[in-house]
Amino acid sequence: MANSWKPEVIADGSGQWCSNALRFATEREALENARDLSYRWICVRDYRATESDDQPTHRWDDNGLGRL
């Protein structure tokens, strides 16, 4: 079972998924963060949320991104 969820994007023609250090407690939070990133970066081709063994570091809610 995953400890957290990480947002991932494909941001170029390579087809490789990339992530950053943000980890969320729920899949929904990670997916919403990735979707938000896709709105701000014009080159994002796809986004998703994947499981991570890392501990959650951030939250995503109606106010946006916040540290835990």
Q: Stretches where pLDDT falls below 50 for ≥5 residues?
A: none
Q: How many structural domains are formed by the residues?
A: 1
Q: What is the succession of H and E elements?
A: EEHEEE
Strand content: 35-45%
Number of helices: 1
Kindly name the structural category.
Answer: alpha+beta
Main β sheet profile: 3 strands, antiparallel
Q: Which geometry do the CA atoms define? A: globular
Q: What proportion of the residues is helical, as a percent range?
A: 10-25%
Number of strands: 5
Give the structure's gist in a few sentences:
By secondary structure, the protein is of the alpha+beta class. 21% of the residues lie in helices and 35% in strands.
Give an account of the 3D structure.
The two termini are 21 Å apart. The mean pLDDT is 94. The strands form 2 sheets. A 3-stranded antiparallel beta sheet has the order 2-1-3. The chain has 1 helix and 5 strands; from the N terminus they run ββαβββ. The protein has one domain. The chain is globular. By secondary structure, it is an alpha+beta fold.
